[in-house]
């Protein structure tokens, strides 16, 4: 499990470096635009592609570390034995959703393999592939978390309806 955490952390770190790159790139683009009237060509494309990487590369580690934002609307009701399955059910539904996202993005990637951006002619497939792989990794994280929540429920002797 520690190797997963290291791999997920490396992806999140890459996400942070890409965010840093976008910040520097945007400042440089603005300076070039207003100081020299020479903005970077295709800066919108670069930013759009980078944003997909920033979000999806960080997703597996965010889920693994439990660092995502959550709202406990049902916390006071979870003392009821019937509702104690809710965290597992939510994790399994999320896993199915992100597995579906990964599958659909892979289909889209395969169907548009030679598609490129308008200005810079950058291929779309590496970015779509990163979205698909990271969505699948996040689905696996959610599966593990759902399974762990089920095990905790049974270990605490709350498996009776």
TrEMBL record:
Query: What is a biological process (GO) this protein takes part in?
Result: C4-dicarboxylate transport
InterPro entries registered for this protein in UniProt? DctQ (IPR055348), TRAP_DctQ (IPR007387)
GO CC terms of this entry: plasma membrane
The reply on keyword Metal-binding is no
Does the keyword section mention Transferase?
no
Transmembrane segment boundaries: 50-71, 83-105, 125-144
Q: Which residues form the Tripartite ATP-independent periplasmic transporters DctQ component domain?
A: 23-152
User: What Pfam families does UniProt report for this protein, alphabetically?
Assistant: DctQ
Select a single GO molecular function from the record's annotations and give it.
transmembrane transporter activity
Cellular compartment(s):
Cell inner membrane
Q: Which domain of life is it from?
A: Bacteria
Which UniProt key words apply to this protein? Cell inner membrane, Cell membrane, Membrane, Transmembrane, Transmembrane helix, Transport
Its placement in the membrane is given as:
Multi-pass membrane protein
UniProt lists the family membership as follows: Belongs to the TRAP transporter small permease family.
Q: What does this protein do?
A: Part of the tripartite ATP-independent periplasmic (TRAP) transport system.
Assembly, per entry:
The complex comprises the extracytoplasmic solute receptor protein and the two transmembrane proteins.
Q: What is this protein called?
A: TRAP transporter small permease protein
Q: What is the lineage of its organism?
A: Bacteria, Pseudomonadati, Pseudomonadota, Alphaproteobacteria, Hyphomicrobiales
């Amino acid at each position: 499990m520690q190797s997963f955490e290291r791999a997920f952390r490396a992806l999140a770190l890459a996400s942070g470096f890409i965010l840093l790159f976008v910040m520097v790139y945007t400042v440089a683009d603005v300076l070039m635009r207003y100081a020299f009237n020479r903005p970077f060509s295709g800066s919108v494309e670069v930013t759009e592609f980078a944003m997909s990487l920033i979000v999806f590369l960080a997703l597996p580690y965010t889920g693994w570390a439990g660092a995502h934002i959550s709202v406990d609307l049902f916390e006071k009701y979870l003392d009821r034995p019937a509702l104690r399955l809710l965290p597992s059910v939510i994790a399994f539904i999320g896993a199915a959703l992100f597995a579906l996202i990964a599958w659909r993005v892979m289909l889209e990637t395969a169907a548009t393999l030679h598609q490129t951006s308008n200005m810079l002619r950058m291929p779309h497939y590496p970015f779509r592939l990163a979205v698909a792989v990271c969505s699948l990794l996040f689905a696996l994280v959610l599966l593990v978390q759902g399974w762990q929540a089920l095990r905790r429920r049974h270990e605490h002797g709350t498996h009776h309806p």
